[in-house]
Each structure stands twice: as structure tokens, then as C-alpha cells.
Design a protein that fits this description.
Blueprint (H helix, E strand, L loop, with lengths): L2 E12 L31 E2 L1 H16 L12 H7 L12 E3 L2 E3 L2 H6 L6 E9 L6 E9 L4 E11 L6 H17 L13 E12 L5 H8 L3
Antiparallel strand pairs: 1-7, 1-8, 2-4, 3-7, 4-7, 5-6
Helix pairs in contact: 1-4, 4-5
EC number: 3.1.-.-
Keywords: Antiviral defense, Endonuclease, Hydrolase, Nuclease, RNA-binding
Enzyme class: hydrolase
């Protein structure tokens, strides 16, 4: 019986400010209109695994779906086996586990004199009819922040012969994300990211990851 778990790790570097919204259920007068999601323990920005998974799946659907899928449950088999499918007749658990990504270079930012790991960007919309202004404050994780990124991929008898194909899809997803954006307001310059120090490691069982590491660093 084959059973192994592969950890895919990388660093996400923010090339522009990133906004992934947090809770604004309570906002005092003068507070930021749209705060970013933060770790409740440290109050430092995080990148939720759900945001990474959802964005990557959406981008890959444009490549690997033969037709436009109205819902994720209508995705192609290759995406369903990686990300999961909740549709009754096609239900399956995904082979990928996405972890939340936490800030990893706080000390470096501190040494540069950074006083806060977030910034506030002031934006404005103008009503074209009334010329009324609608100013708002958007919080962003700052440029040059890096976050530890981690995926867990499970290998069993069922997918032992599909591992390399799956990792090519993962590689494509990372490249597409670099060419797109993460979080909100990407068309206005937010959320440009780069994946660095890509590495696959066997963390349970026996599996030679040499070929996988070659795939991850190959040009798309």
C-alpha cells in the first residue's frame, strides 16, 4: 500500500500592497473603512489558506476546464481531484491542503525602520451625476512583506501515477497567480505577489521528490 504526504513550501513576497478583508463588524468613528484580516494573537496580517485556494482554483479553471463551469463542483476531473468536489454524484476530497500563511520577515522589516506591517491607502470615488465624493480608507499589508506558504499533497495507490501531472498543475497555478493578483482591488495595483524558494519535501512515508522539485522550478 502506498501512502505518503508531500509538503510544498515557498515564500510569498508582496510586490505591492495586499488587501484581504477582515471583520469590520464594529468600526469606531474615524476607523479604517476596510481593515485587513489579522492573526488575533499577534495582530499581524495573514494570508488565509482559503484565499489562496480559491484564487488558484479560479485561475486554473480557465486553463483546465473544457467549458465555463458555473460552480466549482462543475470543474474538470483534474481540478476536482486536487481541490475537492462537493457535488453529490462527484463528491471527493481534494488532495491538497492549504495552510494559512503567516508573516515571516518581521525582523527584516523592523530593521528597515518599518513602524507598522500595514498601511492605509486613501481612495475616492466620484458620482458622475452629482459629483459627490465618497472617500474611504483601505488597509493593506505592506510591500516587501514575506509570508510562509505551505501545501500538503497526499499520495495513495489511487493517485501514485498522477503525482507529476498534479504538480505541473500546481506549478501552473502559482505562475498564474503571479501574473494576476491576490486579494481585492487587483485592477488598481493591489495584490501583486511572487513565489520564492519553492521546495517539495516528503514529510511522511517514502517518496523521491527530486523530479517534483525539478518540475516546480522549471519554466512554464
Amino acid at each position: 500500500m502506498t501512502f505518503a504526504k508531500i509538503k510544498f513550501s515557498a515564500q510569498i513576497r508582496l510586490e505591492t500592497g495586499l488587501h484581504i478583508g477582515g471583520s469590520d463588524a464594529f468600526a469606531a468613528i474615524g476607523a479604517i473603512d476596510s481593515p485587513v484580516i489579522k492573526d488575533p494573537i499577534t495582530n499581524i496580517p495573514i494570508i488565509p489558506g482559503s484565499s489562496l485556494k480559491g484564487k488558484m482554483r479560479t485561475l486554473l479553471a480557465k486553463v483546465y476546464n473544457e467549458k465555463v463551469a458555473e460552480k466549482p463542483s462543475d470543474d474538470s476531473d483534474i481540478l476536482s481531484r486536487l481541490f475537492g468536489n462537493s457535488k453529490d454524484k462527484r463528491f471527493k476530497m481534494g488532495r491538497l491542503i492549504f495552510r494559512d500563511a503567516f508573516l515571516s520577515n518581521a525582523d527584516e522589516l523592523d530593521s528597515l525602520g518599518v513602524r507598522s506591517y500595514t498601511e492605509v491607502k486613501f481612495e475616492n470615488t466620484i458620482d458622475r451625476i452629482t459629483a459627490e465624493a465618497n472617500p474611504r480608507q483601505i488597509e493593506r499589508a505592506i510591500r516587501n512583506s514575506t509570508f510562509d506558504f505551505e501545501l500538503i499533497y497526499e499520495i495513495t495507490d489511487e493517485n501514485e501515477n498522477q503525482v507529476e501531472e498534479d504538480f505541473k498543475v500546481i506549478r501552473d497555478g502559482l505562475k498564474l497567480l503571479e501574473l494576476d493578483y491576490l486579494g481585492g482591488s487587483g485592477s488598481r495595483g493591489y495584490g501583486k505577489v511572487a513565489f520564492e524558494k519553492l521546495k517539495a519535501t516528503t514529510v511522511f512515508g517514502n517518496y523521491d521528490v527530486k523530479t517534483l522539485n525539478e518540475l516546480l522550478t522549471a519554466e512554464v
